[in-house]
Amino acid sequence: MTRILFVCLGNICRSPMAEFIMKDLIEKEGISGRFFIESAATSGEEIGNPVYPPARRELSRHGISCGGKTARKMQKSDYERFDLLVGMEESNLRRMRTICGGDPDGKIVRLLDFTDRPADIDDPWYTGDFSTAWKEILRGCEGLLAYTNKGV
Ligand code: 4NP
User: Fold this and answer.
1) Could you report the per-residue pLDDT of 25-48, keeping only the tens digit for each?
2) pLDDT tens-digit readout, 53-73
3) For residue 12, how far is its CA from the centre of ligand 1 (angstroms)?
4) In this predicted structure, what is the pLDDT of residue 150?
5) Three-state secondary structure call for residue 84
6) Mutate which of 6, 8, 14, 49 to test ligand 1's pocket (most atoms within 8 Å of Cβ)?
7) DSSP per-residue letters across 8-65
8) Is the Cβ atom of 125 under 6 angstroms away from ligand 1?
9) In the beta sheet, which residues pair with residue 37?
10) 35-41 and 2-8 strand pairing
């Protein structure tokens, strides 16, 4: 069982998109039972709120539902609960390390570092570009899936 927590600032745009894209990829491969996947925020701003409508629409355009998901804040205890804690950009990783009191096991990683073009994923909350966010997150999740298929 591979346990993955996707993390962004608000947990209403990028990390829930990553959560439901990854769930869709593993469902299509018939390997859902091998994973436990959630998403969380580094900030408390949006706690309890549903996925931001433009992010929800982008998922839905690709046949993916995210119904029932509400934002939650990442906890220090998540460090033990998950094998990989996957942030969207460097600033997420810094805040994740602060919440966890460090990263002794090297579990805190950046999504696009699983691709051949490592980079931050710009926050569509600010850019308004949910289609680019979709493409980048999908590319990252495909790379992450290939990595986990080799055995985390
Ligand atoms: P996310 O986007 O980190 O991709 O979920 C954001 C959503 C909300 C806020 C910031 C970023 N906010 O400040 O409320």
Assistant:
1) 999 999 999 999 999 999 999 999
2) 999 999 999 999 999 999 999
3) 6
4) 81
5) strand
6) 8
7) ESSSSSHHHHHHHHHHHHHHHHT-GGGEEEEEEESSSTTTTPBPPHHHHHHHHHTT--
8) yes
9) 4
10) parallel
pLDDT > 70? residue 81: yes
Q: Which atom of ligand 1 is nearest to the CA of 46?
A: 14
Q: In terms of Cα–Cα distance, which of 62, 50, 52 is closest to 13?
A: 52
Catalytic residue status for 14: yes
* Owner of token pair 């942030």: 87
Q: Is 72 exposed, middle or buried (0-12, 13-18, 19+ CB in 10 A)?
A: middle
Nearest CA to ligand 1 atom 7: 10
Q: Does ligand 1 have an atom closer than 6 angstroms to the CB of 11?
A: yes
Predicted TM-score of the model (pTM): 0.98
* Residue 87 in contact with ligand 1 by CB distance below 6 A: no
Report how far residue 96's alpha carbon sits from residue 143's, in angstroms, rounded to the nearest whole number.
Answer: 21
Does the C-beta of 14 come closer than 6 Å to ligand 1? yes
Check if 123 is active-site: yes
Which amino acid does the sequence have at 74?
Answer: M
